[in-house]
Amino acid sequence: MINNDEINDIIRILEECYPEPVCALGHYKDYELLFATRLAAQCTDERVDTITPVLFGKYATLDAIAGAEIPDVEDIIHSCGFFRAKARDIVAAASMIINDFGGRVPDTMENLLKLPGVGRKTANLILGDVYGKPAVVVDTHCIRLTNRIGLADTKDPVKIETVLRGALPPDKSSDFCHRLVLHGRAVCTARNPDCGGCRISGHCKSHRPGSRLE
Asked: What is the CATH number of the domain that holds 159?
C-alpha cells in the first residue's frame, strides 16, 4: 500500500498538472449538475453536454422540470441511453426536491440518496462541487487509476471511497478525484496508458518491474 508521503507527492504532482480541477459536465445551477450527472450514466460527458442545453432550455426552472411530461423529456434525452429510466428519475427527483426539500438540492449524503436515480457517486459530486464538503467521487477513471497506482485493491466503488477517505486530506479529496478523471483521460487511459509521459509513474505499482496494467 502506498504510504502517506507518496500520497502527498501524488496529490502535489496532480495539482501541478491539473491546476483547475473542474467537473466536465456543463451546468449553472445545483439541480442542473444533479440531473446532468444522472444523464451521464452509461453515456459520455460530451453527449450529455449536447443534451442539457436543450433540456434546460425547454425546462428553465425546477418547477418546470417537475411538471414536465415524461415522454417529452424522453424525446429530448433519448440519445443518451436508458432514457426512459433517466427521464422518470429526473422528473421525480425535481418533484421531491420541491416537495420534500424546499426547492433546494439536499446537502447531506442521507438526503441526496433519497432522490430517485441518485447513488453515492452523484451524491458525492454534489456535496463536493456544490457545497464544498469533503467528498470522494468514485467513477470509472477513479476505479481504474486507484487500482493501477496501488491506492486500492478492489473494484468496489464503496470500498474505494472508504480507502480514499482514509488516505486523502479531506479538504483535497474532491479536487483529487476530479484530477484523477483529467489524468485518466489525458494520460492513464484505459487501453493505451502513456506511462512514459506520466509524472506519477514513480509512485505507480503498475509501472514497476514485473507489473502488468489492468
From this structure: 1.10.1670.10
Q: Where are the alpha helices (DSSP H) in the chain?
A: 4-17, 30-39, 45-58, 62-66, 70-77, 83-101, 109-112, 120-129, 140-149, 157-167, 170-186
**pLDDT at 162 (0 to 100):** 97
Assigned domain for 212 exists? no
Provide the number of structural domains found in the chain.
2
The Cβ of residue 124 has, within 10 Å, a number of other Cβ atoms equal to 25
- Which residues have C-beta within 8 Å of that of residue 85, sequence separation ≥ 6? 117
Extract the C-alpha cell encoding 2.
502506498
Domain that holds residue 8: 4-21+136-207
Decide: residue 111, CB within 10 A, 0-12 exposed, 13-18 middle, 19+ buried: middle
pTM more than 0.85: yes
Active site residues: 121, 139
Return the pLDDT at 1: 66
Indicate if 107 and 177 belong to the same structural domain. no
pLDDT digits (tens, 9 = 90+) for 28-86: 799 999 999 999 998 888 999 999 999 999 999 999 999 999 999 999 999 998 999 99
